[in-house]
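Please produce the structure of this protein holding coenzyme A.
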Amino acid sequence: MKFKLRPWQVADLKDLVNYANNSKIAANLTDLFPHPYQEKDGNNFIQMVLKQNPTQVFAVEINKKASGSIGLHSQTDVHSKNMELGYWLAEDYWNKGIITAAVREMVAYGFKTFAINRIFARPFSTNIGSYKVLEKAGFKLEGQFIKSIFKNGKYVDELIYAICKD
Ligand SMILES: CC(C)(COP(=O)(O)OP(=O)(O)OC[C@H]1O[C@@H](n2cnc3c(N)ncnc32)[C@H](O)[C@@H]1OP(=O)(O)O)[C@@H](O)C(=O)NCCC(=O)NCCS
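Below is the modeled complex.
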């Protein structure tokens, strides 16, 4: 299925709220991703990412609509040569290979654009789809933090996946 990564736009608000307001998406993300996902949340998000230069968070555009998001998040201090990768996709388009291809694109973009040496992601151990994506895109499992996550009233493990530039 065809998709493209492009910067978020103010005009994406309606599609963003429509697709992001899904408990199956929120269940696999940190609590910074709210549920229910309201217009004010979408607006805050778009305003935040529009300030980035170079762009760090891109919309996943499918059929001319913003249908997901993928981004690299800066780290500080001794972790400044790392960025954290995060992503979600509208449920209508799951299991079609879209995010695997988008992750590959973001890894190439990240190492080309930012002075970093490592990109990591921290899927919950229950999120099989996400760690399959990371493995298909060349990330290696580095570790597992036992019951470090408390999400929706349950403890789950956190997996650490990463890819280095060199
Ligand atoms: C995780 C997510 C981004 C995956 O996006 P996607 O475009 O559907 O991913 P892909 O199609 O590239 O790859 C998914 C793989 O996982 C597999 N998969 C998905 N759910 C699975 C399950 N329950 N059991 C086994 N395999 C599963 C798919 O079959 C596919 O593997 P394959 O290509 O070998 O068949 C999407 O499901 C999503 O947005 N989930 C909610 C938010 C989220 O989890 N974000 C990541 C937080 S770390």
